[in-house]
Fold this protein.
Amino acid sequence: GAVVSQHPSRVICKSGTSVKIECRSLDFQATTMFWYRQFPKQSLMLMATSNEGSKATYEQGVEKDKFLINHASLTLSTLTVTSAHPEDSSFYICSARDVSASGNQFFGPGTRLTVL
Amino acid sequence: GDSVTQMEGPVTLSEEAFLTINCTYTATGYPSLFWYVQYPGEGLQLLLKATKADDKGSNKGFEATYRKETTSFHLEKGSVQVSDSAVYFCALSGAGANSKLTFGKGITLSVRP
């Protein structure tokens, strides 16, 4: 099946620093990628929808200046958490939608961010 | 707005036991319904889906039937295995190519030998 990778798988950073998370579709092209956040024992909450070559669409309550999303190619989207704070500590998951007729969404393994 | 409600977990079963994981939804129109599975250390994988009422999705011995009258999509398996231990998410999406997935909270299944 289609594979989506995320890098890094886990990261620990100091408060006030910025962290970039990459999401890649390895064997298919994705015009649309999604970024989710998952708290312990909670559901996946959609943060933003990223479309290749255009600005991301953010969900209500998500600060676009804090969570910068770039979708520069059909296989790569990045999420940058700027000026991270301990409350940003979470599990971040991306998914990519195949441009083919199937339109299926494939998920990355997630990135565990811990802000000290 | 759209929402998905899953039964509270975790669930622990013995191998070969029968599994039911309840899922109900609230949505406008006619959503598509999904079950995703997340094995330890891996990303979410689509387990099965159904796109219209009375459709039955099935995969790896798991089944779920789209019940519009009860707005449910319960997941069942007749005989679970230790390898089925994972987190299971029920989800829905609206019509259209750009529709978003709305997830339930997920439920952890542990199967003991």
Q: What stands out?
A: The mean pLDDT of chain A is 91.
